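Lab notebook: predicted structure, single chain.

Context: the supervisor wants predicted structures on file for every construct in the current expression panel, including those that have not yet been purified. This is the next one on the list. No modifications to the sequence; it matches the entry in the shared construct table.
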Amino acid sequence: MQLPPLKPYNGFTLAELLICLAILGEIATFTIPKVITSQQNGQYNAVTKEAASMFAAAFQTYKLNGLLTSSTNAKDLTPYLNYSSYTTNLTLDNAYGYTTLDCATNGCVKLHSGAVIWFDGNGIGGTNTTTNALNFVVDPDGHVTDGTTNGPGKSVFFFIYPNGRLATVTTITSGTVNASGYWPGGPIAGADPPWFSW
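Prediction complete. Output recorded below exactly as produced.
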């Protein structure tokens, strides 16, 4: 009995496998950092919006309790926020319009998500629902990006109006002021970090 002839080997050679691995390595080099950055940006966006929503809810509670006056400032809402700790020894990423976000002056609250809310010390200045606003800043990771500089600007500068409307520098109402007359201009396109969206 004669055995049938052997078929030629149809697999990959070592050289072909190495070329495939090199191509896959190149693809991974370009795609993995983008995927990681996209995921991190999505997390920053979600954490920031959650912190701003919490602040807005605290503001509404404060207002419903009849406590809102023209001298109310953002720090007055601290008892109405669900936070893990109050601190005065953090420095945060800058936000548009601020060159220093140091918690030493007005204090900050660190949230359970790791985000930090920085309080502007100025009062709301009045109760006009379209021009008076409190200011606060949310840094989603709660620290300066690389220890010395701002990085891509990861803090978001928020305004909350007496009617509860939240805005950022890109969506602020023209003529918005607080007790110090801050921000009399209008919206500024591109002022929010590129990862932030409503």
